[in-house]
Amino acid sequence: MNLWQEYKRPASIAEAIQNLTSASGSVMPIAGGTDLLLDLKQGRHTPIHTLIDLTFVAEMSVLELRGDELFIGAAVAVNRVALDPLVGSHAQALVEAANLIAGPQVRNTATLGGNVAHALPAADGTIALTALNAQAEVASPAGTRRMPFTALFAGPGKSALDKGKEIIVGFYIPITNYQSRITASCFKRIMRPQGVALPILNCAVWLERQKDVVKDIHIAVGPGGPIPFRATEAEDTLRGRSFNEEIFSRTLEALLAQVKFRTSARRASADYRKHIVGGLFSDVFEAAWERAK
Fold it and tell me: Taking the complete model, does pTM exceed 0.85, yes or no?
């Protein structure tokens, strides 16, 4: 049985949207396809009538500075994200997350947009982009628009976008071009020892340091709820204060009060996650803190 009936290769965003909205039967946009094609072959996804290949849309493969933002197209391969010097200079947490997605062969094909579009609350790229305060650019028949990154998600594995009408074009990450502002970020995760596996827990931190004061901070922990989120209560505890053991203890209490860990047979129990999150957050924060000297 054919896994799809029609295959489209649009060359522009407008053409891609037209292909999506005019397709007969079920339709799905695809870029790397490392998850979708495997699901189709193994029967975990119903057959699709039309595949829209987005890798020929030039705008979606761009990685460049745009003013005071870094733009990464949704069809940019994960390995390119990991190796690009612009990402290394302005979004170190995303580099570290990209280097942990699957294995080298998959990273050469899989895309950052695909990692996000799966809408998993602990996807490595997703957690890094959340901490980096990214915005998403989305195209629809009405045109393109920007939206907060976390607004892309409706629940575990559920995108807030209409896949028959909308596509993610790319992501905008705010960057710092002022010497008076010293910022840094970091991403780490804890996983089972067998290598490529779902993370038990992951964490990303972006911070702005002013001598020994945490001037600003973003914290993302996954999976800490049904959708990716910022640990705003922990951020508020640290923001504007000098970093010391007492403040860190209060921050961890605030973090544990806000996250909603659940028990997963494939990952870990909620109690185990509560037990290890303090050590993981400490490692990530201290790495970002040292980088921001």
Answer: yes
